[in-house]
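PROTEIN DESIGN WORKSHEET
SECTION A - STRUCTURE
LENGTH: 202
TOKENS:
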């Protein structure tokens, strides 16, 4: 479990729903923040937080499905729980295809929502960990020269079989030069072996 604080975002144009959900979540120890519209949420959203989103489908201006699509296009990884007062099969299918955790029709049991939130926050934690790993990998790989990146690609193609001699033949350089590049690559990436390189890039 991560030590980073988790938060539940609520986007619903009904003030009574927002107030009720905020009260219920805070009583159960969740940090929560509510917004009356998708625009308000997007203005305040911090994508670095481990979070999930409780999202009303039937909002004016930008519907829940439209906000889901917008977040997806922006590359934001946040699990979404849809809530709706007049849900239909097409909307629920579209939401789930878009990666929603669940699609709850009002009125719903609070225990059902809490279960969904716990699942969503667990998903969010995993997603954030993956994003952080990717960010760190990109930062490390940015230190490599174009030639070193070529060699990394060859090393990853068949880690247990690609020799310096074979890589050198493909790149028209000597095996000794490949060995020198390998040593610098491992040093820059802060690892000790090709096995660690493979693990790092998975």
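SECTION B - SEQUENCE
RESIDUE ASSIGNMENT:
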């Amino acid at each position: 479990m991560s030590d980073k604080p988790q938060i539940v975002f609520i986007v619903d144009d009904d003030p009574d729903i927002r107030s009720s959900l905020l009260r219920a979540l805070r009583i159960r120890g969740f940090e929560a923040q509510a917004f009356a519209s998708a625009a308000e949420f997007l203005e305040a959203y911090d994508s670095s937080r481990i979070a999930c989103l409780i999202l009303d489908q039937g909002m004016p201006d930008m519907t829940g499905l439209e906000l889901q699509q917008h977040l997806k296009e922006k590359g934001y990884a946040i699990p979404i729980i849809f809530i709706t007062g007049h849900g239909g099969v097409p909307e629920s299918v579209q939401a789930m295809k878009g990666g929603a955790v669940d699609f709850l029709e009002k009125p719903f049991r609070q225990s059902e929502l809490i279960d969904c939130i716990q699942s969503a926050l667990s998903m969010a934690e995993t997603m954030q960990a993956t994003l952080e790993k990717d960010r760190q990998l990109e930062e490390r790989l940015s230190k490599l020269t174009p030639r070193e990146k070529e060699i990394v690609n060859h090393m990853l193609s068949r880690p247990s079989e690609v020799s310096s001699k074979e890589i050198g033949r493909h790149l028209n350089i000597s095996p000794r030069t490949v060995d020198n590049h390998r040593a610098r690559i491992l040093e820059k990436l802060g690892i000790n072996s090709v096995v660690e390189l493979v693990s790092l890039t998975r």
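SECTION C - NOTES
Strands lie at 6-11, 32-35, 50-56, 80-84, 102-105.
The mean pLDDT is 88.
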